[in-house]
Amino acid sequence: MTQEYDVQGMVAKIRALRRNAEALKEVSGGIPAVDKNADRILANVKMLEINISDAAGILQK
Known about the structure:
Structural class: mainly alpha
Shape: elongated
Radius of gyration: 14 Å
Distance between the termini: 25 Å
Largest sheet: none
């Protein structure tokens, strides 16, 4: 069974996750718990970018 995925939709949501996590760090006021958790979110977003966004770039070629 062939399954289709909305890769470009996923890429857009991954970008939004990055923007939101970065914005959260900006408004955190240096609260260590918020900064550390935002960094963890950004690390996971990076993995999504590697897995999905990079693949989307290859699929577009």
